[in-house]
Amino acid sequence: MYSAPIMLLLDTSMTMDHHRIRQAVSDIYEKGFDTVCVEFRNNIYDEYDPQGKAAVQVVSEACTRLGLQFLMIMPMLGPNIVKEHPEARQSWAVEHTGQVVDKRFSIAIKRVHNVGFVHTDPRVRGVAKAFHIIRDASRRIIEATDITDRITFAIDMNIETTLAGAYEQDGEILVYARYDTDYMDFAYRGMHKSVDSFLEQYEGLPLDGYAIDEFGAGCRSSEDVYFVGSHFLAAFKAKYGYDLLDRIYLLKNEAVDACAGKVRYDYYQLTIDLTYDLQKYVKDRYTERFGENLFGGFHSTWWGEGNSGDLWAGNIDYFRLTDNLSGGFVDAQFDAERTMVSMTMLAESLAKYSSSGHAYNMCWDRNTTKEKLDYYQRLLAVRNVRWVGHAYGYVGPFGPGYPDHSTWADTKICLERQKTFQQFIGTAVSKPKLAMMYVWESVAFFNNEYMHYHRLSLKAVLDKMMQEHIEIDLIPTSEADLARYDMLIVLWPTMLPEAAWQSIQGYAAAGRRVIFIGPPAQCTVEGRDIRSEFEQLTGAQSVNPFAGKLYTGDYEYVEWDIWFAKSKIEMQMYPLTPIDGETTLIHDGDIIGVSKSNVEYFSFEMPLTSYFETLMATLTRARELDLPPNTISKVSCDGDNSVLSLTGRWEARINCSFTFRGNKITITDGVLVGIRLKGNRVVEIISDADCTIEVNGSKREYVTIG
Fold first, then answer.
1. Dihedral sign, Cα of residue 446, residue 449, residue 454, residue 455
2. Which residue of 109, 143, 221, 437 lies most exposed, with the fewest beta carbons within 10 A?
3. pLDDT tens digits for 324-372?
4. pTM of the model
């Protein structure tokens, strides 16, 4: 059930052509999809219109006739009730820097665009907060004086909008212009009415689940936009005990004797809380109406497949948000193998924290080819990750618009392969010896363009582990059972929850190997300074994360994968001064690698450099299969049973010999191969046709796939 969902996009023409809708559902069924997820897109109608309701009824009846699961993709929450509750609209604040000269100032006000779902733009409506500030030589704020009630100003709206006024003291000021919007404040206590309103439109439909695609209760704007509406500010103060506006300057500025990272964490944690609460309300209401075991998706990895922009969108804590979904969901694009590999592995890790254990990847491409579809669907099959088909209907520039695409016929064999491996692997899962902690909190600590390096390094680690056949779990900072792993990578330890920091120190004290990578640890999310403890653990002092040094060597930089940078973001390193640690890496005269007993620290984005090969060589004991690099594999376990699944990268065939549990296994001319063992004995094999498989020198028969 829910092994092969696909999005069905109803545009205006299809909405009005019920025969075409029935044909679409039949076509979807024939290809092997089992769940139809309906969305109104490029449509003048929706679920509130009689025409939209009639079209959805036709889909429902067609799915029932063919035995398919059916659900509606819920639109963005809020716009459907904003007219009813205009008092609960969002207000935004954007930082502007100005200079008071001879007690006068004039500031060009930024134009902020809407982020979809409504047709109106944000409008400047005054000043939310203003500060007179004094900085030190490193641009850190020494003093910030609230001057909101002490400035006089006027807004002059032309092609360019300006805010001009007067203040009694010359110097730098930070002015936070307030913008009115027509989005709903996600902290508004009546936000659940948005969900209820959609459910009312679905009355009488036998829905098998729900989907809120790419939902986050943050701001999707790529500008430095912050929520300052009354409902959000009240929720912030109730949760943290202080007024956000009093410290809003810390969201984008560093200050002496102030933990700016904690303010940033508090802000983004609240947006994640709001995302979580709304998702939970959806889950609870659907369960109440339609029962248990519902499909619940889609992904939270919205901006650029695990992009750090998800911090702004309020959905970067993928693990916690998995609570309200029925599996581990991601999206990815075929245009980069690293993205496909790393996001597929993220889905597998998220699935281990979900109610079903199922992993899903909504993957697609703006220029899908038969070669891409074939390879990446085999990748999903081998890794036991389910494809969310994207999409049937008119999609514009966002991927193949099935059935009008050359790869539509190929989806049938792709799904047959995936379902075969889903059944063959069953409930078996990988049992890695190595884990990497996903510290999204450190992304919040930076809250600037450099935070994209967290994602680049994370994707690089996962991709390179896959190519080296080293299984790895990505784990949240809330994971308490670190003892089941032999080794732990902590990527970006800059800001950690107190409990996570204590767990890491306890893990290291037990003699387990810990590898820190990236900017140095500074504080806990609770605001406690842990710099000295980190220095004691690693045996070295480091510079401040905002006082790094440009890395002068070669490194991987995928420019198209960083959506929000107007120019290249240079990679930083953080030179170390050993205390009682041993120097392990010197680059251009700077120490950037140290070790102390079983703890190692590399103070730069090591996974993006050739230095990572040296580290990888020390992780080989975590490798379960010794295979050539043109092969993708997975080892899954269920009690005493093991399942090996393999395929070639791109057009490569599987031609290799390896040993597993005392068995010498030789595969010749393989495309997709699955091998099941009970204990140390090979008991079942599946493969595409024309492959030769030998176990301990004897040729073995296999069940042919497809």
1. positive
2. 143
3. 999 999 998 898 899 999 999 999 999 999 999 999 999 998 899 999 9
4. 0.96
